[in-house]
Amino acid sequence: MATRQGGFFSCLPTALPARHSxxxxxxxxxxxxxxxxxxxxxxxxxxxxxxxxxxxxADLHVPQGRIHGxxxxxxAGKSTLIRCVNLLERPTTGTVTVDGQELTALSGxxxxxxxxxxxxxxxxxxxxxxxxxxxxxxxxxxxxxMKRGEIRERITPLLELxxxxxxxxxxxxxxSGGQKQRVAIARALASRPKVLLCDEATSAxxxxxxxxxxxLLRDINRxxxxxxxLITHEMEVVKSIxxxxxxxxxxxxxEEADVGDFFTAPRTQLGRDFLxxxxxxxPPRALIERLEDAPGPHSHPVVRLAFSGDAVSTPLISRLxxxxxxxxxxxxxxxxSIQERTLGxxxxxxxxxxxKTREAxxxxxxxxxxxxxxGHVQRDD
Length: 381
Ligand SMILES: Nc1ncnc2c1ncn2[C@@H]1O[C@H](COP(=O)(O)OP(=O)(O)OP(=O)(O)O)[C@@H](O)[C@H]1O
Ligand SMILES: [Mg+2]
Prior knowledge:
single chain, six-stranded mixed β-sheet, 2 domains, Rossmann fold, binds magnesium ion
């Protein structure tokens, strides 16, 4: 597959400045991972056996009040990374600092105390089946030694926040998946944490319920100023609520960007693969089968175009047809809104003599469109 410009999406204009460079006063870093690596060794054989290194030299900064996503394929090290933040997994090397306190320097009760500032939710909710909704949410407060009256005072508004006031006396088995995750969110918030860690929190839920839980997380982020670090393998989750995203591959953080930038111009091949899968913009199957790499005497290029910013609202295709004397057959098109950005995508066949279609490609590129030539299709007519 030929590419005119060193990779699809690689040089789209950035329509808006990055959020972190808007001139606003700097925000405190809430989560800081410095050169964190994690190797798993077989139990009791750390000195003799070789281990699995699931996280390699990870550096990550999440400013206070932001929602940061980490996306990667299965086995990439996402859970390892997030579990290193609250030291459910102790890093083999490197330091973890949350809210100004270096957790990797703590152990025992000091670490437990520091963990009260970090809530966590999981894919499978991890509720105690023998406890009611209320008692599940109360558990961390009981463990902290809080008095019954105080616990009730704290939990009542939390159940209201997650929309479960009427379910307080029910048991997990009586709840839907989305309701169970709401209980888990209320439980995670009970100790009034400053950070919420979400390990694939919506992966077990249907799309509608996923949307409702993401809305709740966004609401909590705004209302409570909570910093959220979430890991996911779904671009939809990143698109829906994250401000910034990191991409993890084979234990390494290989790319990091504001979400608007990532969706318009991912810098790595893995990023582009995630984006293409998410956008599902492929030529029709019948056409794919007829695509050839090299142009022939009577072939036309089939191109994938991506455009953002002003280009979305400019009638470029009709101008192209007029100014370059080519016909443009649009095979697929869609417009996506990603945060403040609008991203337009199109697959089109450029029809005309070879010199005219070459001119048309130059025209598109000179107007800040990202152009990828998918191949050439023979036309005998
Ligand atoms: N406790 C463990 N002992 C040994 N190896 C482990 C352990 N936990 C994870 N691993 C290995 O570390 C690597 C990363 O695993 P991890 O669970 O962090 O990936 P992940 O990105 O969360 O995957 P998934 O999307 O499937 O949940 C994998 O190769 C896994 O087999
Ligand atoms: Mg995982």
